[in-house]
Amino acid sequence: MSRVENSKKLNLERIVFIGRTYEEYLNMFLLSKEELFGKKVLDCPAGACSFTAVGNKLGLDIIACDIAYYHSGNLLKSKGLQDIEHAMVHMEKAFDNYNWDFFRDIADLKSHRLSALTNCSNDMLENGEKYIPVTLPTLPFKDDQFDIVLSAHFLFMYGDRLDYQFHINTLKELLRVTKLELRIFPLVNLEGKRYEELDNIIKSLKSWGYEVTEIAVNYEFQINANSMLKVRKLTR
Could you tell me which of 101, 171, 175, 178 has the fewest CB atoms within 10 Å of its CB? Predict the structure, then answer.
């Protein structure tokens, strides 16, 4: 690991290593395996999600990137197990802030989170080249390298700690490496309220020449987190 990488590496204790399953991704982003087949896909930031691990085993071409990947897979798995236990205690206390249609109960949710972590951490050990450490808003990829970029539970959700300029810089970078489209989920913050700068973000994206659409999706676990933003590059 280079000196530059070390300086950017986030303290492991500050990383929450919890992820969603491949099936959750299809629902969150209104996608199907058929739509993704033959396309280069980037998941950013991917965390402990199993979308890359399961998708690649199904014949898709997916790369995951996250600041957490500066750490080893074994360390991340251990951290992830602790984080899942902690999160489940929080879920018990905040049960009514969530919609329990997708998961039957907290035990079912825990099972999904453990499945995602296991698939992700095992795949990191077997196919490490698919997991790229990054520090947003900078990505180590070429222009238009990916047909589709997916970004879940990061932008908009943490508007209280990621300022507007960080959002703008990160969006520009995600779009730089995107050939066709970028999809972002959800459009609300941790309190379930629409990101307060979203309309300004959309206005900026349109002024840059992108087609921007808010789309309701087939997934709502956190209350009000049931839509995504699709940003398409217009053909010239």
Answer: 101
Distance CA 31, CA 38 (A): 14
pLDDT above 90 covers a percentage of the chain that reads 84
Closest residue by Cα to residue 48 from 68, 25, 70, 72: 68
Integer angstrom CA distances of residue 106 from 19, 78, 142, 172, 222: 15, 21, 41, 37, 13
Helices 164-176 and 198-207 cross at an angle (nearest 10°) of: 40
Rounded-to-10 torsion of CA 222, 230, 59, 152: -30
Please tell me the predicted confidence (pLDDT) of residue 7. 40
Domain ranges of the chain: 3-233
- Does the predicted model carry a pTM greater than 0.85? yes
Residue 159 has a pLDDT of 87
How many secondary structure helices (H) and strands (E) does the chain include? Answer: 8, 7
Task: Say how many C-beta atoms besides its own lie within 10 A of residue 13's C-beta.
Answer: 7
In CATH, 3-233 is 3.40.50.150: yes
Give the burial class of 190: count Cβ atoms within 10 A of its Cβ; 0-12 exposed, 13-18 middle, 19 or more buried: middle
Burial class (CB in 10 A: 0-12, 13-18, 19+), 164: middle
